[in-house]
Q: What sequence folds into this?
């Protein structure tokens, strides 16, 4: 090995492993040491899975030496959000104090798929308690402490896949797995300055993942580049008899996809957002004009946020009924998580069903609005990373709507976020590309085209003193 | 106004429901927060109820009959 493996994309690392310039065991040791030494700076790690990572690394090394190379994830360390079940006595805490000792007998499907691909599970990564399903509104909402962005140790990493975002950003792992119900992959990707891919609903099995909202939960990767997201998605996607909502069509990543894109921007999409977020988005659109035709899109007037919010609240209320009714919610870290869940029990069944009927209408209207377009683009988050001690929903005065998040998650559409600049305070911002259902290849290609024209993803946060 | 269409009346009933079910574990301050939350629920469902739907507008997730193999 002639160069450091830190902040090197998976595609390049894989080349080094395949050509035996670095061994999986050496790679695992390097990242385990960083997870252990630097992880606490960001409250990023719940459990270091050293023994499992080294066992898997030794197996990978033997397989590669004997000519059985499995593909680009073979021998690559990764971390998984701590809501994916892991066997072998490794705790799966869901980020919540009442579950800090919880263990499972079997691995979640996504963990199995990565094992089959030869990736090395190196850590269970921190997350907002119960994936934010109790209605937290400030960063200190996990028994491991608030997630911290590596770009400013006084600012939030975003949630709920907090550790997945910060660990990739700080070079603690080459990639991580997160989950999104509404904003939990794209948000940390934006606040931490990395790429995050929310696949189409049903692309990746939810089996063995904590359920927050059965019809909204998605599993996806956080990586250094859009290209890496494609590599990881190909390994983790596919039908799973244990999750009847999975799609039968297997995702095949097409990295060479090059063409002139047609992108849409929802009218007034920046309204109420932080100035730097708007400025960086407008600058990104200018860059994209060199590879895309951009047009303004108007969505019909529907209560998008209310539709998705009602579905999320009603399903979460049922998914966690046992802990809400037993009063275990009182043991959660965020005070608001003690009483917010009670409010959701006031949602009537007929309103939940109405939201599901409107969801169909929303999906059809958005599909119509996207006709002739490859993707919609927008700022990923209305703000850059917010202070650790401030409620994040009050920062912009609460005016900024998240129509893209409501529509994208409600209709189950794929989206990818990549960094598109920095604020004056040195905090990253992100741009999201949201595509049509099952069209991850196009959003990855558009994001990759943007990354090939810009260097924001090549910047990395300062290393804190150990 | 009929009670079923009066947001204030609905809010009051829902708050009383929460108080009835969980009152023993709610401080006065927490109950005030619950009231704000119920306000949010009422605003949300009012927006949903304002959109006309036809009888043919079905819910998004479709029910699939289950059968064991064999």
A:
């Amino acid at each position: 090995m002639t160069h450091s493996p830190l902040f090197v994309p998976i595609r390049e690392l894989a080349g080094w492993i395949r050509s035996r310039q670095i061994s999986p065991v050496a790679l695992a040791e390097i990242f385990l040491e960083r997870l252990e030494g630097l992880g606490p700076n960001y409250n990023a790690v719940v459990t270091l899975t050293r023994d499992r990572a080294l066992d898997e690394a030794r197996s990978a090394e033997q397989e590669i030496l004997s000519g059985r190379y499995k593909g680009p994830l073979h021998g690559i360390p990764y971390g998984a959000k701590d809501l994916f079940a892991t066997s072998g006595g490794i705790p799966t805490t869901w980020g919540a104090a009442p579950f800090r000792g919880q263990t499972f007998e079997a691995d979640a499907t996504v963990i199995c798929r990565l094992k089959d691909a030869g990736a090395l599970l190196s850590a269970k990564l921190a997350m907002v308690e119960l994936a934010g399903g109790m209605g937290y509104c400030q960063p200190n909402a996990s028994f491991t402490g608030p997630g911290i962005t590596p770009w400013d140790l006084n600012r939030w990493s975003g949630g709920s896949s907090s550790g997945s975002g910060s660990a990739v950003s700080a070079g603690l792992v080459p990639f991580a797995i997160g989950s999104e119900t509404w904003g939990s992959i794209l948000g940390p990707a934006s606040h931490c300055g990395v790429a995050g891919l929310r696949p189409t609903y049903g692309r990746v099995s939810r089996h063995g993942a904590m359920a927050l909202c059965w019809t909204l939960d998605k599993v996806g990767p956080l990586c250094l580049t859009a290209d890496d997201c494609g590599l990881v998605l190909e390994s983790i996607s596919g039908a799973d008899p244990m999750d009847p909502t999975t799609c039968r069509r297997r995702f095949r990543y097409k990295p060479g996809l090059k063409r002139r894109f047609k992108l849409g921007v929802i009218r007034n999409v920046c309204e109420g957002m932080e100035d730097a977020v708007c400025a960086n988005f407008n600058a990104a659109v200018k860059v994209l004009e060199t590879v895309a035709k951009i047009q303004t899109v108007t969505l019909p007037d529907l209560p998008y946020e209310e539709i998705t919010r009602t579905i999320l609240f009603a399903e979460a209320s049922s998914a966690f009924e046992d802990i809400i009714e037993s009063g275990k919610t009182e043991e959660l870290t965020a005070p608001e998580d003690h009483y917010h869940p009670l409010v959701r029990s006031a949602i009537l069944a007929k309103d939940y069903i109405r939201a599901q009927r409107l969801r169909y209408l929303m999906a059809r209207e958005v599909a119509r609005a996207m006709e002739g377009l490859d993707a919609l683009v927008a700022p990923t988050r209305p703000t850059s990373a917010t202070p650790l001690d401030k409620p994040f929903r009050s920062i912009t005065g609460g005016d900024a709507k998240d129509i893209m998040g409501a529509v994208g998650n409600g209709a189950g559409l794929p989206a990818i976020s990549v960094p598109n600049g920095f604020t004056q305070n040195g905090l990253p911002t992100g741009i999201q590309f949201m595509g049509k259902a099952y069209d991850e290849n196009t959003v990855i290609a558009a994001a990759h085209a943007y990354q090939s024209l810009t260097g924001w993803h090549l910047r990395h946060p300062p290393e804190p003193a150990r | 106004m009929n009670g079923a269409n009066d947001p204030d009346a609905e809010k009051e009933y829902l708050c009383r429901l929460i108080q009835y079910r969980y009152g023993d574990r709610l401080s006065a301050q927490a109950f005030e927060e619950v009231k704000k939350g119920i306000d949010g629920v009422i605003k949300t469902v009012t927006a949903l109820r304002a959109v006309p739907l036809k009888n043919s507008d079905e819910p998004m997730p479709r029910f699939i009959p289950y059968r064991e193999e064999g």
In short: Chain A has one domain: 10-303+352-458. Chain A touches chain B through 34 residues (CB under 8 Å).
